[in-house]
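Review form for a predicted model. The reviewer records the input and the model, then writes brief findings.
Reviewer: anonymous (R2)
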Amino acid sequence: MSDQIPMRVAVVGATGFQGGAVARLLAERGQRVRTLTRTAEADRPPLPGTSFVGGDLADLPAVRQLMRGATHACVVMPLVYGTEQVRRYARNVADAAREAGIQRLVYNSNTRIPERSTNVAAFETRRIAEEELRASGVPLVVLRPPVYLDNLFSPWNGPALVSEGVLAYPLPGDTSAAWISHRDLAEAVFAALTVDGVEGETFDIGGGESLTGDELASAFATGLGRDVRYLSLPPTVFEQALSQVAGPEAAAGVAGIYHYMATGTDPLLMAGDGGRSADALAVKPAPVDEWVTRQPWQVWSTEAS
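Model under review:
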């Protein structure tokens, strides 16, 4: 569909990790990209080919300016978990997209969402956003990713992986997860924007296979060429560490996902979908060991420091 004619894409969240990956891929492929930010120019991540509109999702005129003239849009919500705040953000996006005549909107929920309602804000606020966007009448595709490989290439994981062979993450060791990279998420978003016949669909996107903690460690061992063991990190420890960087409210919201997974209530929530999304979107996520091999792990080496 839109791969023949350049799109004009409004990207909500392009100054973050997932939205940034989407904006970069779109620009690489010759699409025109515009995003919304209050971040000062000097502090913005490098996003060649992307123009900026000042404002945030609470500012309806700014959201309208973002959408004006766009043909397509993709959205990921910021790390806020207040019900009414997220509802307001989603309604502003929905109203502006409808007014602008957006041809297709792709919503990245940033997490899988259980079928039944929970008391977990990270799930329920994203469910609310999805409902608001769907009610707008704008043609919608919803992507629900599991967990990101890029979370493991970080100051919290990299040094221990490189120096000690320890892969620590706040998922139970026996939980199967279809880990996906930000780049493969971006590929899925591009496909959801352009592939015919997927409007109205919801996809539990993910990597090529579901891996338990030990299987994930084995894939990392192959990619790193050294022994790696998986350590199931208590969600409370993860939340405390994240709060130092993101603040207590955002940390509590993100950690709510892992507290939920630790209960064992829905052990397959983060698992693969049997290839449905890969087939429908014609995407092929990279195997975990290949992704590992491509990362510059030496930046976490004590020798490099």
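Findings: Residues 243 and 249 are 8 Å apart (CA to CA).
Further findings: The radius of gyration is 19 Å.
Recommendation: see findings above.
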